[in-house]
From TrEMBL:
InterPro entries, alphabetized: Glyco_hydro_28, Pectin_lyas_fold, Pectin_lyase_fold/virulence
This protein's GO CC annotations: extracellular region
Subcellular location: Secreted
Gene Ontology MF term list: polygalacturonase activity; rhamnogalacturonan alpha-L-rhamnopyranosyl-(1->4)-alpha-D-galactopyranosyluronide lyase activity
The protein's name in its UniProt record: Uncharacterized protein
Coiled coil: none
PANTHER family named among the record's database cross-references: PECTIN LYASE SUPERFAMILY PROTEIN-RELATED, PTHR31736
Protein species of origin: Rhizopus delemar
Family to which the UniProt record says this protein belongs: Belongs to the glycosyl hydrolase 28 family.
Length: 383
């Protein structure tokens, strides 16, 4: 495995301007050399030579085979022109349970270029092995990342941790199995311990959460996201194993979920502590979704059921949640359109539902509002 420190810099002028970056001059340009073997060393060389203000270029039409783990830290004032293709290694036990394939850490980083990261995930799906690393881990400040594609991710596509003022835009994720073994656990975007994150103008075809907003996140906005076949726009899961976690100020706006398992969702574990507050879903269209609006403090893995049953009376507090203009249709599975089920000792509170208009199926059950303070005044709770 290879780890390395470095920076990156470069991009087409129009793309940088679309990011709001106007200083497009770059002191040095470093093209990653092509190779028939592992591209890791050449990537290291390019980043090292273009540290502090240079441009690293993955050349259009070139495929870079990455057979090692790459960690790039200390980035500052750099651009990455990802115009070519990075192809990850085939499934191997040496990658199991590692954090990432590629990580970028630093500040004032701009990634663009129209290229592709090929996660090469089919062998992971066929082995039903859900231990692969996240494809791209970002720990960035005052940065812009976008205008590229990730395909065939073996697990999560994008992970954002310890980031501030990060914009993700015009990203295409396209992961689907070609066999009967589904591409499970392939979250689009996992975010934790970050503030001021914007994710917008992107299309996701994935096999798990469209977004998973985890502990330590404040002030995150998702807008104009189209998600196909995923598990919804999720906050959580939070509080696993009694952990204390906080999420505050979440906006999911002007987005679509097609044929998703869940639509808009908040999920916390029994026995967890902390809070979820100031969450707004607005103008979200859910087409043929199994569970359109779902809030639960009873989230649990099957192998943890005994623990969950013993701690089910309390969880994180969930308050200040708005569902506004949630439209579309529920699938034929018979689940309620609205399912809000909170804990008896830590009830949910201060919920607003307005303009929720989801077309029922023939077997759709009545809405559920359990341990929701003020539910008697919410008309949707009796529908």
């Amino acid at each position: 495995m290879v780890q390395f420190l470095s920076l990156t810099s470069s991009v087409a002028t129009l793309l940088l301007l679309s990011f709001g970056v106007h200083n497009v001059a770059s002191a040095t340009t470093c093209a990653v050399a092509s190779s028939s073997g592992d591209a890791a060393d050449n990537i290291v060389t390019a980043f090292t030579n273009c540290n502090n203000g240079g441009t690293v270029v993955f050349t259009k039409g070139v495929t870079y085979n990455l057979n090692s783990i790459v960690t790039i830290t200390g980035l500052k004032n750099v651009n990455v022109n990802l115009a070519g293709t990075i192809k990850l290694a085939s499934r191997a036990t040496s990658f199991q349970n590692l954090d990432h394939y590629i990580q970028l850490k630093g500040s004032n980083v701009n990634v663009y270029g129209g290229g592709t990261i090929n996660g090469n995930g089919q062998a992971w799906y066929d082995a039903e092995d859900h231990t692969a690393p996240t494809v791209l881990r970002l720990s960035l400040t005052d940065s812009n990342v976008g205008y590229f594609t990730i395909i065939n991710s073996p697990r999560a596509h994008l992970g954002v941790t310890n980031s501030n003022n990060l914009v993700l835009t015009n990203i295409t994720l396209n992961t689907a199995s070609t066999s009967d073994n589904e591409a499970k656990n392939t979250d689009a975007l996992d975010v934790s311990s970050s503030s001021g994150v914007i994710f917008k103008d992107s299309t996701l075809t994935i096999g798990d959460d469209c977004t998973a907003i985890n502990g330590g996140v404040t002030n995150i906005t998702l807008s104009n996201i189209i998600c196909n076949g995923g598990h919804g726009f999720s906050v959580g899961s939070l509080g696993k194993g009694g952990k204390t976690e906080t999420v505050k100020t979440v906006r999911v706006l002007d987005s679509v979920c097609n044929n998703c398992q869940n639509g808009v969702r908040i999920k916390t574990w029994p026995g967890g502590e902390g809070s979820v507050s100031d969450v707004k879903y607005s103008n979200v269209k859910l087409n043929n979704v199994d569970n359109p609006v779902i809030v639960t403090t009873h989230y649990c893995d099957k192998n943890q059921q005994s623990y969950c049953n013993g701690n089910d009376d309390s969880s994180l507090t969930i308050s200040g949640v708005t569902f506004n203009k949630i439209t579309g249709s529920v699938s034929s599975k018979g689940n309620p359109i609205i399912n809000i089920n909170c804990s008896v000792d830590t009830p949910c509170s201060d919920f607003t539902l307005s303009g929720v208009s989801i077309t029922k199926a023939s077997k759709t059950k009545s809405n559920v509002c359990v341990n929701l303070s003020g539910s008697s005044k919410i008309s949707e709770c009796s529908a």
